[in-house]
Amino acid sequence: MGARYAAIEVTAWNPQSWKPRATRWFAVPNDAAFTNYPGAKTVHSPLIDLCTSRQSDAPGAYPMDSLEHVAPRVRALFDLSYTRMAVVLRDPGSRSASHVAVVESDAGQDDFVRLSVAAGDNEHNAVMSPDGRTVWFTYTDRGGRKRIGSRSAEGDHHLSDEGPAAGDDLPLIITGKPSRAVQANMVHLAPDGRRLTATAPGVFGTVFETWNSSGPLARTSARGAVLLSGCAAIVGWVGDDRVLCRTSSGAFRTMNAHTGRTAGAPVSVVGPQDGTVAEGMLVSPDGTKFIIAVHQPNAVEDPNYGYPESDFQVTPTTRGGTATDLPDAELDGKTVFLSWS
Fold this sequence. Notes:
By secondary structure, this protein is mainly beta. Helices cover 4% and strands 36% of the residues. It has two helices and 22 strands. It has helices at residues 46-51, 67-75; strands at 7-13, 20-27, 84-90, 98-104, 112-114, 123-128, 134-140, 146-152, 160-164, 172-175, 180-183, 185-189, 195-199, 207-209, 215-216, 231-239, 242-247, 252-256, 277-283, 289-295, 311-316, 324-325. It has a four-stranded antiparallel sheet, with no helix packed on it. It has a four-stranded antiparallel sheet with strand order 19-20-21-22. β4 (98-104) and β5 (112-114) form a beta hairpin. The longest helix has 9 residues, at 67-75.
């Protein structure tokens, strides 16, 4: 991070030794929104999640900023192989316009593809399709309605309308083949692809059947809803019928996705007197481990050293196992673990 410059480093890790294997860089264009600040158009983008410290006074992109919320929406910025990243550009000549764009890995700061240039564009929530061919986003149509749209990352970048949107305050996640957008919080697709986790204001439930069109999680689209009892935040699936949650007590627990009841003993990472909280980001493919960050919930900035950094751990999803610390100088308060394969 710099005063007017940001770059995203994506690192591949060996999940046995926890040593870095490869790194890619994404230079953020000068006009890209990576923070919200007074006097500038407020932009909704997962990139702002990544670049803005949660202790900062700067406005966030979304109402909820726990790592369980942040991790899946930051993952959606990139294609499956981390070669492209979607961004939202502010228009220097307008306080109201914003446009989506694509950044290639390891390219220069000025080497990006602007996908829209119309003066009246009001585009937010830019994310990549898994195949890297299209950018999806929310936008305002000529009638003032909020919609979900997509633009090709190559060739003709014309707008394709994909369906209704629930405003700009909810992020997008792209799933399925062909691609479709789900607008909701904490979206995780089950391994068998038949159900997903999600939350949205005013919608009952935590686990739903997937649907075949793009749109927000709403009462009309929320089919087969199951409420995971006591689930304060969703970490991910540990099998086709079990979900790992952070509970209201701060412990982590596996829940039955069919009944909504607990399916295992609680896994406590921090104690009530520790003065820290633990937030989950990612579950291993076999469902036996997950990655957490332990940090102070109301940290105060030190004038010399900044905010205290998070401690990262790999923890068993069942009680009784041994956690592994991930000590590395490159892991800091802006680190988010995104995928595990």
